[in-house]
Amino acid sequence: MSLFRSQCSRITRAQRTMRNIPFTVSGTVTGFQLVSPHTQIHFDVKDEKGNVISWVALSGPPQRMYRSGWRSDTLKVGDQITVNGPPSKDGSKYLGVTTLTVNGKVLTGEGE
User: Fold this and answer.
1) In the chain, how many domains are there?
2) CATH number (domain holding residue 59)
3) By residue range, what is the domain housing residue 36?
């Protein structure tokens, strides 16, 4: 039992540490929703083999995003973006937005 507990403890610590490692991914916007509880940015990324992988970046609530200058037309389908933020702990293709760059403009992910 203690071996199982120690392995689980190690995995949990590794996952927590992974969440603090900066992660950057670039792709093409396929959808943008300024909705509660989290703004959602859907985008496609090509991997090293050319396969298209769909990602979702989550950000702050619309009220906070709006106060910092985000609008429903801030991102458009086809825009090229670079997103920096913590990846999902479970390895799924989700990440939180720390910063997002579009058309040379850097936006914060929490609207601050």
Assistant:
1) 1
2) 2.40.50.140
3) 22-108
DSSP state, residue 73: T
- The 8-class DSSP code of residue 76 comes to -
**pTM, two decimal places:** 0.78
The terminus-to-terminus CA distance of the chain in angstroms comes to 46
Does residue 83 fall inside a structural domain?
yes
Assigned domain for 71 exists: yes
For CA atoms 48, 59, 105, 80, give the dihedral sign.
positive
Which among 49, 48, 50, 40 has a CA at the least distance from the CA of 93? 40
What are the tens digits of pLDDT across the range 34-78? Answer: 988 889 999 999 999 999 999 999 998 998 888 878 888 999 999
Cα 81 to Cα 16, 40, 97, distances in angstroms: 26, 14, 12
